[in-house]
Specification:
alpha/beta, nine-stranded mixed beta sheet, about 20% helix
Amino acid sequence: MNNNLPLLTYPKWLKTLTAESMAEDEFPLSDILTDSLYYPSSWLDSDPVRHLAGNIYSFIYVDYGHTKSEIDYSLENPGFRRYHIIGRRPVSEHELNPKGAKPSGIDPRLDGRPEKSERFIKPPFCEWIIFAKNQNATRSTAPERFSLLYLCADGAAAFQILFTPNRIRPRAIAIIEPGDGFGFNWTRFYKPNGILARSVEANPAGMPLFLLDGNSPTSACWPYYNKYICSLVKDVHDKIFVYKRN
């Protein structure tokens, strides 16, 4: 967790989950969306969890470029340090989108064309995974649990399907390695007038409070976020810059 950001109360829905209840109970979509971190073009980047678990308990990762077998392997090798999986299950399209929302609003002049990246898009799937802290974990400030919802999907379309019809906003959005170079993203998530930014801005619940920006140390990629909060160490050479919307 990061002391520069407000901490959240350990949510009851997460505290009481078991592998059995995950399989048997109704999928808690609203709980997972509320106060979450939304990370499009994420792969399985552990940095937001490493730095912000405790400030956030629900992480939603979206990336269309990796297969389920790749995710399964990466969850074990190396996985998330200091944590282990205590429950996981697949999530159906109806559970994610019970209202049948349809993504829209692409402007080819501003956004590009999705079909240019078709050959890089993997078959869609969604997994919900609960992690618990290892008994021998040395970081006492790390929370006992966190939730990860992983979607193999387009980041802008998934936002429109998950958050907009449910009138919920994530607590934070991460645009760290958006894949618009060699990552084969069809559009640019950094663009303040791009399809992702427009989708987030159009959410009737409002925009996320925080933006994690992997690119700019001087000003956020989206100008609505005009208050610098702190930086998070990504590796020896790179940082993630946290901005707040006033």
